[in-house]
């Protein structure tokens, strides 16, 4: 396509037609003091390509890149190994440039990939059906809450205190416009029943005055459920509840059995939504769908998608078949063509915005196709056995790191169960500790002070993620860095 | 029993305070193969002209409106498994829901078979 800019004569003629004397006349409604009259003050003038490259390389070297340091950050975004073949395959032009496959006759490759992606997600989550992906885990989580509202015709959602606080934020932003009432709580930093020597189990209680404004109420935790708020959730379900939303493993890394929650929710006509931010865990632990979850959503970044500064990622969304018509997003189906040959098409599109307009199940009518492709290729390369092995390595590495770290004086493990991520309670505020470790070149975890700003009771918490890319040397470096930072 | 029609292509059979509602043969023909019908719950209160059901065909999804105000007493559960009944028997076995009228006076604005036939011809 050629781009033909306007000539000065074109401009003059267009301005004359609308009765304006100059381009500036078009901005007359913008107050004069808000208009820019010349170059932006304080900005350097343009420079040569080489100079710009040099400048930005210098800036980039100030970053502590994940790949260059012992790296233990998680909380919803995980650094896993991505086989080179994943990037090679997704960059094939047929995949990289493909647009929404409205025309099945020219989009069989894209459609088949999406169909296989859906199959993998449904099996991983233990659900009947999955869609062709959403933008990311947090938006998928909100969409699930909206879907539960449409199905139950109720508006009160009960959110676990173990749900990622940024997922809670997204839901609260959306709920301002939909009228959903979200019942939320803060997690508790309770040590297990028999705290290690040197721990101080009393210091986490009763210090929530500076509570994060996103949360009402506080959760004291319940030792019967490994410190999670299962008791609060079970007690909170009634006939006005649309859904219970629980993260698995949760933000602190804990894993709880969900069957009792599903049963209680169903007895009251409510749905159970499970949120999985680390799908690799499902290589080892039971799928939420197998425990009765009605909708299972998640973040698919862990498989095939890099950290990428926080996005683009890929939202996973699956549910029981009976709810499929209320499911948001694209859905690809298998069919046969006029000659009886197997083929793939978008199906149940009447739920979607391009047909149902303002009555669509969701305004999310697109998906993260390329990231979904990367997820699907990585899953295919791993296979069921490969995923299990990957999960086993993750768990073993995490256990080893937890064992080493809890030998440091004053450091307590507060997550009695975990997969590849656990939470430590440090003898002092974790945020400056993380900074001190970063200064020594170790990216040692995510402080709860960063996830829950201003919450005194949580500020000593440190969430540590350990994946297969972490080496013995990395763990040793973390132990030294933490000891030094606490000394 | 008296049958009335709306400009939105619903029919309503009225027997005293009770009525049955569906979509017309013309409507099902325009929609094409019907694949899904979403019906109102028993006990739901419907307002005249307000959305009562959704009918989905291979071509489109459309709202079905309540011809008059009332309370739903029954939804046609046969449509869950066989939505194509709406194509085959639109004005008999393919009915959508039954309701008790809350304001029978609203029937006065509706069309009879002749008027509806003329209306369809004019489209």
How would you describe this structure in keywords?
heterodimer; A: 487 residues; alpha/beta; Aspartate Aminotransferase, domain 1; Aspartate Aminotransferase, domain 2; seven-stranded mixed sheet; four-stranded antiparallel sheet; globular; B: 123 residues; alpha+beta; OB fold (Dihydrolipoamide Acetyltransferase, E2P); six-stranded antiparallel sheet; 37% strand
Question: Secondary structure elements and their pairing?
Answer:
The complex is a heterodimer of chains A (487) and B (123).
Chain A: H1 8-18, H2 49-60, H3 84-90, H4 93-96, H5 108-125, E1 129-130, H6 137-152, E2 156-159, H7 165-178, E3 181-183, H8 230-236, E4 241-247, H9 259-267, E5 271-276, E6 295-299, E7 315-319, E8 332-336, E9 342-346, H10 353-356, H11 369-405, E10 412-413, E11 421-425, H12 430-439, E12 446-447, H13 448-451, E13 461-465, H14 472-486
Parallel strand pairs in A: 2-3, 2-4, 4-5, 5-6
Antiparallel strand pairs in A: 1-7, 6-7, 8-9, 10-11, 11-13, 12-13
Helix pairs in contact in A: 3-11, 5-11, 6-7, 11-14, 12-14
Chain B: E1 2-5, E2 10-15, E3 18-23, H1 25-31, E4 34-38, E5 45-46, E6 51-57, E7 61-65, E8 70-75, H2 78-81, H3 85-88, E9 97-101, H4 113-121
Strand content of chain A: 5-15%
Number of domains of chain B: 1
Q: How many beta-strand segments of chain A?
A: 13
Strand order of the largest sheet of chain B: 1-2-3-9-8-5
Beta-strand content bin of chain B: 35-45%
The first-level CATH class name of the largest domain in chain A: Alpha Beta
Flag low-confidence runs of chain A.
194-212, 214-220
Order of helices and strands of chain B: EEEHEEEEEHHEH
Report Rg of chain B: 13 Å
Instruction: Indicate the percent of residues in helices of chain B.
Output: 10-25%
Distance between the termini of chain A: 65 Å
SSE sequence of chain A, one letter per element: HHHHHEHEHEHEHEEEEEHHEEHEHEH
Of all protein chain pairs, which has the greatest interface, and how many residues does each chain bring to it?
A-B, 6 and 6 residues
The number of helical segments of chain B is 4
CATH class of chain B: Mainly Beta
Provide the domain count of chain A: 2
The CATH superfamily of the largest domain in chain A appears as Type I PLP-dependent aspartate aminotransferase-like (Major domain)
Unreliable spans of chain B are none
């Amino acid at each position: 396509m050629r781009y033909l800019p306007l000539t000065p004569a074109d401009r003059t003629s267009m301005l004359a037609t609308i009765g304006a004397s100059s381009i500036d006349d078009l901005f007359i409604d913008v107050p004069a003091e808000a208009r820019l009259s010349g170059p932006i003050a304080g900005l350097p003038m343009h420079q040569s390509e080489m100079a710009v490259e040099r400048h930005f390389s210098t800036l980039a070297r100030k970053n502590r890149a994940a790949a260059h340091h012992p790296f233990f950050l998680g909380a919803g975004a995980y650094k896993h190994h991505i086989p080179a073949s994943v990037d090679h395959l997704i960059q094939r032009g047929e995949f990289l440039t493909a647009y929404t496959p409205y025309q099945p006759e020219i989009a069989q490759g894209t459609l088949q990939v999406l169909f296989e992606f859906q199959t993998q997600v449904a099996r991983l989550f233990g659900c009947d059906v999955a869609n062709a992906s959403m933008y990311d885990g947090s938006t998928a989580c909100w969409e699930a809450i909206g879907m539960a509202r449409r199905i139950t015709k109720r508006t009160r959602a009960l959110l676990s205190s173990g749900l990622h606080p940024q997922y809670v934020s997204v839901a609260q932003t959306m709920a301002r416009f939909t009228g959903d009432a979200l019942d939320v709580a803060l997690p508790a930093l309770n040590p297990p029943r028999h705290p290690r020597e040197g721990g101080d189990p009393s210091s986490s209680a009763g210090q929530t005055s500076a509570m994060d404004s996103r949360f009402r109420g506080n959760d004291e935790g319940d030792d019967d459920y490994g410190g999670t708020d299962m008791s609060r959730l079970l007690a909170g379900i009634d006939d006005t509840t649309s859904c219970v939303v629980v993260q698995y493993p949760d933000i602190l890394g804990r894993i709880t059995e969900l069957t009792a929650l599903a049963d209680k929710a169903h007895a009251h006509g409510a749905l159970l939504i499970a949120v999985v931010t680390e799908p690799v865990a499902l290589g080892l632990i039971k799928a939420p769908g197998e425990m009765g979850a009605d909708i299972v959503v998640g973040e698919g970044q862990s498989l095939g998608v890099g950290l990428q500064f926080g996005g683009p990622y890929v939202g996973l969304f699956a549910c029981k078949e009976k709810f499929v018509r209320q499911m948001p997003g694209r859905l690809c189906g298998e069919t046969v063509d006029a000659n009886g040959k197997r083929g793939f098409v978008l199906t149940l599109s009447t739920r979607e915005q391009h047909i149902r307009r303002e009555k669509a199940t969701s305004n999310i009518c697109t998906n993260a196709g390329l990231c979904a492709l990367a997820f699907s290729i990585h899953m295919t390369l791993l296979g069921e056995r490969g995923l299990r092995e990957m999960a086993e390595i993750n768990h073993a590495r995490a256990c080893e790191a937890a064992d080493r770290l809890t030998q440091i004086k004053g450091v307590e493990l507060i997550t009695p169960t975990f997969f590849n991520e656990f939470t430590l309670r440090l003898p002092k505020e974790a945020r400056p500790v993380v900074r001190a470790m970063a200064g020594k070149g170790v990216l040692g975890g995510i402080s709860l002070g960063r996830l829950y700003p201003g919450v005194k009771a949580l500020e000593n918490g440190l969430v540590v993620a350990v994946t297969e890319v972490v080496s013995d040397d990395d763990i040793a470096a973390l132990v030294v860095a933490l000891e030094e930072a606490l000394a | 029993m008296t049958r009335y029609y709306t400009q939105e292509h619903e029919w309503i059979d009225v027997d005293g305070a009770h009525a049955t509602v569906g979509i017309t043969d013309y409507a099902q023909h325009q929609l094409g193969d019907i694949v899904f019908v979403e019906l109102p719950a028993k006990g739901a209160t419907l307002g005249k002209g307000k959305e009562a059901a959704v009918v989905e065909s291979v071509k489109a999804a459309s709202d079905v409106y309540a011809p008059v105000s009332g309370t739903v007493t029954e939804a046609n559960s046969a449509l869950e498994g066989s939505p194509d009944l709406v194509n085959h028997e639109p004005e008999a076995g393919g009915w959508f829901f039954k309701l008790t009228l809350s304001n029978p006076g609203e029937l006065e604005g509706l069309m009879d078979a002749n008027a509806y036939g003329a209306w369809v011809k004019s489209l």
